[in-house]
Amino acid sequence: MAHVERHQWDVVIVGAGGAGLRAAIEAREQGLRTAVICKSLFGKAHTVMAEGGIAASMGNVNEGDNWQVHFRDTMRGGKFLNQWRMAELHAREAPERVWELETWGALFDRTPDGRISQRNFGGHEYPRLAHVGDRTGLELIRTLQQKVVSLQQEDFKESGDYEARIKVFQECTVTQILKEHNPEDGEPDRVSGVFCYERESGRFFVLEAPAVVLATGGIGKSFKVTSNSWEYTGDGHALALLAGASLINMEFVQFHPTGMVWPPSVKGILVTESVRGDGGVLRNAEGERFMFDYVPDVFKEKYAESEQEADGWYEDPDNHRRPPELLPRDEVARAINAEVKAGRGSPHGGVFLDVSTRMPAETIKRRLPSMHHQFRELADVDITAEPMEVGPTCHYVMGGVDVDSDTAAARGVPGLFAAGEVAGGMHGSNRLGGNSLSDLLVFGRRAGLYAAQYAREHAGSRPRVGDEQIDGAAAEALRPFGVGSAKADEEAQGPAENPYTVHQELQRSMNDLVGIIRREEEMSEALERLAELRERARRAKVEGHRQFNPGWHLALDLRNMLLVSECVARAALNRTESRGGHTRDDFPEMDREWRRANLVCTLAAAEGAAGAAGGDAEAGRAGRIALRRREMPPIRKDLLELFEKEELIKYLTDEELTSE
Amino acid sequence: MTTDVHHGAGPGSEGIGGAVSGEAPDATRPETSYDAHFKVWRGDVDGGGLEDFTVEVNEGEVVLDIIHRLQATQAPDLAVRWNCKAGKCGSCSAEINGRPRLLCMTRMSVFDRAETVTVTPLRTFPVVRDLVTDVGFNYEKARQVPSFVPPPGLGPGEYRMQQEDVGRSQEFRKCIECFLCQDTCHVVRDHEENKRAFAGPRFLMRVAELDMHPLDAAEDAGLDRKSTAQDEHGLGYCNITKCCTEVCPENIKITDNALIPLKERAADRKYDPLVWLGNKIRRRTT
After folding, report:
1. Catalytic residue among A22, A256, A367, A529, which?
2. CB pair distance less than 8 Å for B170 and A107
3. What is the domain extent for residue B202?
4. Is B104 found in the same domain as B63?
5. Amino acid B278: pLDDT
6. Which of A84, A490, A491, B79 pairs with B186 at a CA distance of 20 to 30 A?
7. Whether residues B162 and B267 fall in one domain
8. Which residue among B132, B158, B182 closes a domain?
């Protein structure tokens, strides 16, 4: 095998979105040499698409806010399936993480007294989202990017090298996490680095490091209608699985209630929740504000029952209950779906989201400039004069790597960490809007901190990367060119496949069969189709050469999307209840017994090493994922006491309530 | 160096037996759909040329959709950079009929159906492959602008700023770093030799943004941003033709709100005939 360049670092961060950059900043500030590797250009990560804001209980707009209230809202939003310790850390630390951004140059919108302004959002009791118009994600990513640059400037002053202690490998993809196997110590194999290719040249290289932080974001590109970009192919989820880590909560996929539905080429593009937070309302084709009909029992006391009451809330929140348009996202998405199914949808299969009759044109342009621009440019709709048409779009995965709440360390794989969307647990069964950006900052920092600590502890005994691992990874990556190995010939038991076609069929299957409303037969069928697609993906062939070849890149990404899709389908089939981002037609009720359970996905044991041949067709059909049920640790007493007993009864079993 | 290769709209590329779906001829197609003629630059650092394609276009589509259709059906290895497809990340910058634009925000409906749409890579930066260019120049320039200097003695959470004061810099922070302004700026577009001394509109605007930041304490730390704009980032090269403002997909008034005020502030120290001219022009138009 050709020579593959190796670079030595202390900490490697995979992904340069909010979580990855925050982790990198922390690891570098701990004094460690930190490499960041990302698929896009530096500063283009998916975080830029976040619109509404960062949730943090600073209490700038309503003094009643504090971390306990934020914690409560987060647990309710996740229907109590959240890893409570993560939800607690998140609520406690978010304000500090936001203020810190200001010291790095961020410019948030202000309150009249000059503090950071905060806006209302679904599921948040008080105005809580720090924001910059509707482009908060851009501000976040740019601030972190510029902070990285400022650290590089410091290093330049000191050493003459900008990249002495923090370097961004942009437009590079990681295809495997490498591990050192020590047969003598009986310990699990520990992380030794990552195998990567440079997208521009196709050149392979290895970043060696004792600590690797996954911050790769989500999985939305496995679905047809999604607000996610091409990058969201579940890389980190799959890399973790292949490295021996577990994923939890994969059945919970958030369908954002408001994506664009027309024209077809923009279907799925996000319409920010700020539209509703700032006063926008949802109407069906009959002009009715239908959300009043969809307030579930667990939220009945907290939401308005009439339009009059709801409208009063914007000005006088203390004496009115909130409008039902601001229910958590899963509730709103299901409601829209039901309205469309009942034949009360808009002409293009969505519902109407209207701000034009709710506030003056100038206010709309100031508060929602990107939305105004997006609809004008892409749909010929002037949102200051007419309603938007919107419908659910795959937006976020609650599930992810099973991590230790405090340290973000992946369970079972020493040296591996995960933060942000790729980590599971924080959001339970459904994430509240605004809790994503704060999650990135809180757990990005923690992952960077503990990865640095781990790397420092292992500085004296750096794990080695064996040549055979590199050769194996290179062979796997070259497969789509159909070169080099007898294996490729042997497996050519069918026609060569176009990776784009396989991808489209995967997206259609997941969208139609494991989408917003699920039933047993469809999910079983999805698993069958995934097995077929897995075989076809193995025959994916690409033309041309390795230099910036998108067909090749996609062929490699298919492995990850298929693994992750199988996790989603298997876990969804297993969970016989409806909760948050998992709605079963055949089991429509939430079941308190299920609240205590996490479904844990691991790579099926028979499969052996990553990238190994998939065995015969029979084994292929059995799938690559093993699923098991695990009990959640009981919620700490002082945290439970933040809730009224009447509310807890709705979520916890009698046994749990009396167990103290 | 130009080679012309023709591709039909029929079934996809050879060698991928039967795997390409969907591009069936007209019978079932909605009326809003038509075949467009495209010329796309293909090649790499060693050269290349425009290739002809005939490709289906549907209602509401943008140029990036068409490029993606070409990838999926006719040219699977056609290189293009993109991400959000919603005008938010600034990745898919290219030139369409010679004009710097985002592929994802250029609607097909702005072209006549009979018109040939020509897509070429950004001209100012070295080509990597097809529509992808090496934009490293911009990252180098970004590193040369000294970062925000936090005010001493003010802890996190203690910052107080008025909306009207942050508003000016916020306009510049809308920048999505698509680098279309850098591409179109004639100071560097055909003058490789100016690249060393000139940061380009995007990064001069960054200097202006920090200079107007209500709490930036650079001056107290001995850094005069205005004079560095002139002396180190080549502000003097800019002769305010406003090309950058014209191509900005975020409609940032780069020239009027960032570059001219920066020139004025810098001119407190140094006479600059362009500032004088700029003032005259502005007075006339407003």
Report:
1. A256
2. yes
3. 135-285
4. yes
5. 61
6. B79
7. yes
8. B132
| Contact call for B59 and A501, based on CB within 8 A | no
CA distances, B143 to each of A156, A402, B68, B116 (Å) = 10, 37, 33, 40
Concerning whether A584 is annotated as a catalytic residue, the answer is no
Residues B143 and B100 both lie in one domain? no
Residue A146 has φ and ψ, to the nearest 5°, of -70, -30
CATH number of the domain that B15 lies in?
3.10.20.30
Strand pairing class (A34-37; A11-14): parallel
> Is the dihedral angle over the CA atoms B131, B132, B136, B138 positive or is it negative?
positive
Residue A158, exposed/middle/buried by CB under 10 A (0-12, 13-18, 19+)? Answer: exposed
CATH code at B245? 1.10.1060.10
Residues A220-258: b if buried by 16+ CB within 10 A, e if exposed: bbbbbbbbbbbbbbbbbbbbbbbbbbbbbbbbbbbbbbb
Q: B170 contacts in A (CB within 8 Å)?
A: 107, 109, 132-133
Active-site annotation holds for A110: no
The tens digit of pLDDT for each residue in A92-121 reads 999 999 999 999 999 999 999 999 999 999
Overall average pLDDT of the A76-100 stretch: 98
Question: Nearest to residue A414, comparing CAs of A259, A218, A182, A196?
Answer: A182
What residues of A are in contact with residue B82 (Cβ under 8 Å)? 229-230
Number of domains observed in the structure of chain B: 2
- Over residues A223-250, the mean pLDDT reads 96
Give the right CATH number for A257-392 from 3.90.700.10, 2.40.30.20, 3.90.1150.10, 3.30.450.40: 3.90.700.10
Instruction: Decide if B70 is inside a domain.
Output: yes
B71 neighbourhood in chain A, CB within 8 Å:
500, 550-551
* Cβ-proximal residues to A342 (8 Å cutoff; 6+ apart), any chain: none
Tell whether B124 and B179 lie within a shared domain. Answer: no
Pick from A133, A229, A552: which is nearest to B85 by CB? A229
Numbers of helices and strands, H then E, in chain A: 21, 20
Which residues are CB-contacts of A429 (< 8 A; sequence separation ≥ 6)?
A78, A79, A81, A249, A252, A330, A398, A579, A580, A581, A582
Read off the pLDDT of each residue in A610-624 and give the average, rounded to a whole number: 52
pLDDT tens, residue by residue, A372-396: 999 999 999 999 999 999 999 999 9
Contact A229 B60 (CB under 8 A): no
Do B161 and A49 make contact, defined as CB atoms within 8 angstroms?
Answer: no
How do beta strands A5-8 and A204-208 pair? parallel
For residue A141, give the nearest of A221, A205, A220, A48 by alpha carbon. Answer: A48
Element holding A167 (H helix, E strand): strand A166-169
Do A102 and B80 make contact, defined as CB atoms within 8 angstroms?
no
Cβ atoms of A142 and A148 closer than 8 Å: no
| B169 shares its domain with B80 | no
In chain B, DSSP finds a helix count (H) and a strand count (E) of: 10, 8
Percentage of residues in chain A having pLDDT higher than 90: 88
d(CA A533, CA A523): 15
Q: How distant is the Cα of B275 from the closest Cα of chain A, in angstroms?
A: 29
Task: Please tell me whether residue A447 adopts helix, strand or coil conformation.
Answer: helix
Burial class (CB in 10 A: 0-12, 13-18, 19+), A201: middle
* ipTM of the modeled complex: 0.91
Q: Considering only CB atoms, which chain B residues are within 8 Å of A270?
A: 86
Catalytic residue among A46, A124, A276, A395: A276
Q: What stretches in chain B show pLDDT beneath 50?
A: 1-3, 8-26, 285-286
Q: Is the Cβ pair A103, B169 closer than 8 Å?
A: no
Residue that finishes a domain, picked among B115, B132, B149: B132
In a domain, B1, yes or no: no
Domain A485-631 belongs to what topology?
A: Methane Monooxygenase Hydroxylase; Chain G, domain 1 (1.20.58)
